[in-house]
Amino acid sequence: QVQLVESGGGLVQAGGSLSVSCEASGRTFSSYAMGWFRQAPGKEREFVAAITWGGGITNYADSVKGRFTISRDNAKRMVYLQMHSLKPEDTAVYYCAADRRAFRLVIAIVEYEYEYWGQGTQVTVSS
Known about the structure:
By secondary structure, the chain is mostly beta strands. It is built from no helices and eleven strands.
């Protein structure tokens, strides 16, 4: 079993920056890719960013590319999402997710490839 706990959400003005974090426990963290997804009110949950188990490869949704950065610290069992130049349309609940397959070579961007999910943290960007 894996537990994921997000933190760091909040309220920020458009153009500002915010970071969210996710702490993992329960299995070998460094063997699995990690992802961030988000769900805005009235919309389906969507992929935001992901990082391979070793941290060497990342992937981003087009909507956040160049503004968001995903990183991980395997020693601390943490994954981070740094968000810059935030827009009102970035407002959503942000979820941390853990890949269901160890040592995946290609980053998964669909929900069903992620087995464990955090409870989510709210990010609100005001205009």
